[in-house]
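Hi support team,

I've been running sequence recovery on a batch of backbones for a student project. Most finish fine, but this one hangs at about 90% for roughly twenty minutes before it completes. I'm not sure whether the input is malformed or the queue is just slow. I've pasted the structure tokens below so you can try to reproduce it. Let me know if you need the job ID as well.

Thanks,
M.K.
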């Protein structure tokens, strides 16, 4: 008995944990939920009522046949009325509940999506897109049946209580015999639900892996085809879905085991009851005619008990499945962003003077990526960062919009530590154009307006002209209303970059970050993009990571970085005269026909591109 109580306590704890997680989402719909519960409770009176009315009906039919004959016409109408009563109430509470649950699913998905949106870049580098999609769609889908199952369990539970009351009222001694099945029933339900929960969680993990695999191969279809890896990718996918199928087979076996298992367990007391009931009928039929009527009502009640018992077993299995999904979603909500706003954060005033990095260091796990970095960029200056791959260039610029926070030191804009400013007011002042331009599967106009609020067509066209993008946009089938495909796949690399530059121009930020914005382009496209970038950099403070050193010879300040620290800085002429690392890199490019320095170790996307950025 102690083992049974321990199992029951463990199950109740898991149920409570799952319920406590889900119920807050239903609080705003409390009145509807109460209505659903009330309707379901009234609907649950149907079966106990039928069982109870067996006795008076038999009284009229057998004890008072003349009166019974007169009231015979009531039987069909009573049956129709009873089933109509149950049908209307059942439809009403289930329909209202379904609408309620769909709203809650929407709320949980939105909350989960919002949570993902505000997590830092640290999270996105460790979690695949497929995993996040799986948690938002599949896991929430498993969870949304928790409350319907809870309401259904109340409905079935009240049915069971009502039928049990009828049983005890009609035959108290026989009813006590029914309780011998309770301990084995609880044990069986717990054993089955534990396995269902285990297989649910395994299935969700495997589904997330499949989603990640599909997202990777669809996004990387060009690479797959270029290496003729179609067959291998299909094999990889088939292996993954077969693994999921095996888990689903095990889950299905356990899920469909619970009802027959409970039926077998319940047959034990039913068999015993049937024996004693038959014996009592034989002994008392002559001496106590009411015994048959009581027993008939009792037997109907016992027979009607099977359905709620089986359904409660099935509901328990669904709760176990939902518990596995709830655990995964709860784990997601427990993940906290590594970049947070202070409670009293201020709106950062528009930059007027300078950006200062003061003794900035940044650790990535156990690796020192940036060390004691100091830099000042005055308003309107172009500051170029150069260095070999892994030197920390992109990490340094990514600290400015607070994609990550320094481990030590501070970054200040006009003397204000950026950690004391709201993230929105900081990031609205910074425009970013990177090597890997991301465009949305939307129109050209909407991509240009992204993040800039409501803008008219004329403003869009003006910034497109400034970015030297207007001409090719005009040649598109629907001009500015042309949909450019996922990640801008219908445009060339140079065209995508010019759309990104137009987007930055539309935002009109005082600070600009250029992270190797021309490195992936051919010479002709680079020339066009470089002209557009010159327009973009006018009157803005720019931090540029250089791909080709010839493009930053006019910079106000060139900073050479090695292992996250500054080794030299100055103008192009000053650094060439020094004859240090910058001159070595510049001459290497010049003599090798302007090959990118990342061919020999440059082209860095930051110390954290390989690890963090």
């Amino acid at each position: 008995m102690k083992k049974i109580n321990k199992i029951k306590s463990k199950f109740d704890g898991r149920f409570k944990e799952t319920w406590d997680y889900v119920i807050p989402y239903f609080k705003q719909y409390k009145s509807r939920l109460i209505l659903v519960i009330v309707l379901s409770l009234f609907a649950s009176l149907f079966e106990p009522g039928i069982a109870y009315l067996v006795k008076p009906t038999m009284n009229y039919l057998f004890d008072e046949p003349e009166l019974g004959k007169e009231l015979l016409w009531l039987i069909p109408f009573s049956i129709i009325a009873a089933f109509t009563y149950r049908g209307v109430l059942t439809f009403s509470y289930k329909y209202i509940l379904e609408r309620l649950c769909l709203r809650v699913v929407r709320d949980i998905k939105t909350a989960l999506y919002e949570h993902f949106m505000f997590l830092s870049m640290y999270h996105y580098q460790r979690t695949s897109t497929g995993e996040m999609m799986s948690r938002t769609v599949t896991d929430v889908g498993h969870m949304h049946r928790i409350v319907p199952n809870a309401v259904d369990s109340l409905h079935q539970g009240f049915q069971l209580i009502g039928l049990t009351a009828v049983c005890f009222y009609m035959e108290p001694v026989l009813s006590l015999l029914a309780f011998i099945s309770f301990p084995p029933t609880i044990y069986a339900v717990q054993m089955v639900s534990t396995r269902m929960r285990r297989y649910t969680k395994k299935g969700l993990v495997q589904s997330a892996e499949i989603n990640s695999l599909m997202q990777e191969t669809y996004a990387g279809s060009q690479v797959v085809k270029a290496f003729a890896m179609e067959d291998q990718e299909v094999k990889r996918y088939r292996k993954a879905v077969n693994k999921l199928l095996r888990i689903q087979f095990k889950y299905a076996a356990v899920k469909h085991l619970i009802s027959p298992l409970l039926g077998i367990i319940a047959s034990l007391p039913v068999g015993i009851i049937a024996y004693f009931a038959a014996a009592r009928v034989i002994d008392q039929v002559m001496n106590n005619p009411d015994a048959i009527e009581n027993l008939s009502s009792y037997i109907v009640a016992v027979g009607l008990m099977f359905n709620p018992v089986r359904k409660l077993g099935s509901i328990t299995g669904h709760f176990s499945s939902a518990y596995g999904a709830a655990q995964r979603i709860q784990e997601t909500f427990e993940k906290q962003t590594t970049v947070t706003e202070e409670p009293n954060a201020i709106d950062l005033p528009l930059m007027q003077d300078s950006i200062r990095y003061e003794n900035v260091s940044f650790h990535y796990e156990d690796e020192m990526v940036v060390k004691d970095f100091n830099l000042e960029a005055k308003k309107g200056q172009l500051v170029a960062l150069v260095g070999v791959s892994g030197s920390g260039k992109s990490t340094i610029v990514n600290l400015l919009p607070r994609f990550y926070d320094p481990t030590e030191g501070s970054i200040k804009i006009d003397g204000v530590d950026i950690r004391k400013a709201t993230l929105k007011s900081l990031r609205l002042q910074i425009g970013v154009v990177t090597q890997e331009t991301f465009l949305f599967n939307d129109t050209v106009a909407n991509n240009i307006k992204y993040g800039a609020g409501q803008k008219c067509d004329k403003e869009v066209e003006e910034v497109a002209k400034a970015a030297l993008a207007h001409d090719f946009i005009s040649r598109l089938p629907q001009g500015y209303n042309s949909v450019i495909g996922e990640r801008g796949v219908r445009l060339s690399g140079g065209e995508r970059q010019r759309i990104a530059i137009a987007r930055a121009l539309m935002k009109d930020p005082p600070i600009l970050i250029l992270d190797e914005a021309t490195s992936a382009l051919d010479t002709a496209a680079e020339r066009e993009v470089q002209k557009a970038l010159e327009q973009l950099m006018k009157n803005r403070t720019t931090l540029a990571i250089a791909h080709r050193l010839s493009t930053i010879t006019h910079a106000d300040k060139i900073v050479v970085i090695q292992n996250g620290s500054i080794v030299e800085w100055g103008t192009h002429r000053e650094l060439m005269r020094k004859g240090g690392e910058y001159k070595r890199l510049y001459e290497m490019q010049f003599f090798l026909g302007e090959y990118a320095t990342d061919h020999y170790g440059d082209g860095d996307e930051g110390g954290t591109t390989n690890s963090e950025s």
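--
Follow-up from support: It reproduced on our side and the slowdown came from queue contention, not your input. The longest strand covers residues 367-378. No action needed from you.
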